[in-house]
Structures are given as C-alpha cells and as structure tokens.
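Help needed: design a sequence for this.
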C-alpha cells in the first residue's frame, strides 16, 4: 500500500526537498542493510568498529561498533529527514536482509565448491535447477533414475548468480536425481 511521505502530509515538517514517490520500502535502508550483511558474512563478524567522516560536514565523525548499527542509523536518518515513515525503513531493512541472503547463497560461493547444482523449484511441473560454476565455463547437467544410466538434460555457461536449467523431459518415475559436470 502506498502511503504519502511525512513531508507531504505533516504541515509542521519543513524540508528543502519534497520527494514525489510513495513511501514503499526505503531503498536506502534496503541497500545499506544488504551491504552490511554481505560484508559481515565476508569478514565473519558484524562486530567491526570504524569511524566515518562527512564530506558535507568537515570535522564531524561518527563511530560505529558494528556494520548493522551503521546501516540502522542510515535508515533512521531518512525517517528523521521526513523522507520515509519508520514502516518503510523497517520493510526496506527486511528486504535488504533477503537480498544479502540471496547474494551470499548464489554469488559468493567458494571456488572449491564449484560446480554446484541446486533445486530452484518447479515450473509447469518441470524441475528448475540452478547451476553455479566458474564464470564463463561450460557445464553439462545430467539426470538419472537409477544412478547407473545418466542422460543429458542441458548445457549451460556459468554466469554470476548461477544459471537456470529446466528439465523438460521428466519421466514417469517418482524419483529423479541430478548432477553437474564441467565440460
């Protein structure tokens, strides 16, 4: 549901900038929370103390004791500035966490774990598989029902975030297994 921003409905709030878009999931909160979460995963901790400076306020610094605390403050600044309601900040941070989870699960895989094949769901009753591999390298996706005879389902070239491969030839067998191999 679109809600007018605070600066547009509260006459007591004065802002030099009047945003024109509705207050739906704050993009700043989303991007900052996603970035903080991915960096925490890369470094293995969120508890990183750092000091930030300001180009527009020389001499002003802010010290944070975690990446999440910085991302949270950045999101709150948009609420304080009358650009978003707190609900948009909260929803933006929630979607940022989902984005970070996707990035970590699909884009930051260790090379030693590649190639990797994941079940991504069903589309029109057909299995959808996501193949992760060394970017630019070609991989074959194979299927079996008995672990003896393997048939090719498709060929993909690895790309950032993985590549989708659909098994259009699902047999009547209730069980089907898949593997991926470099070409």
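Sure. Designed sequence:
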């Amino acid at each position: 549901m679109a809600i007018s921003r605070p600066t547009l409905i509260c006459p007591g709030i004065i802002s030099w900038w009047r945003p024109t878009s509705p207050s739906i999931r704050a993009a700043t909160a989303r991007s900052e929370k996603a970035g903080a979460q991915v960096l925490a995963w890369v470094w293995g901790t969120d508890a990183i103390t750092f000091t930030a400076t300001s180009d527009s306020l020389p001499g002003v610094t802010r010290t944070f004791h975690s990446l999440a605390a910085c991302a949270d403050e950045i999101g709150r600044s948009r609420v304080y500035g009358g650009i978003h309601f707190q609900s948009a900040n909260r929803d933006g941070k929630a979607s940022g966490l989902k984005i970070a989870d996707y990035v970590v699960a699909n884009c930051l895989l260790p090379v030693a774990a590649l190639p990797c094949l994941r079940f991504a769901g069903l589309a029109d009753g057909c299995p959808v598989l996501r193949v992760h591999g060394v970017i630019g390298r070609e991989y074959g996706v194979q299927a079996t029902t008995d672990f003896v005879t393997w048939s090719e389902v498709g060929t993909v070239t690895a790309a950032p975030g993985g590549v989708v491969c659909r098994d259009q030839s699902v047999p009547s067998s209730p069980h089907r297994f898949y593997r991926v191999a470099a070409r």
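The chain has a mean pLDDT of 86.
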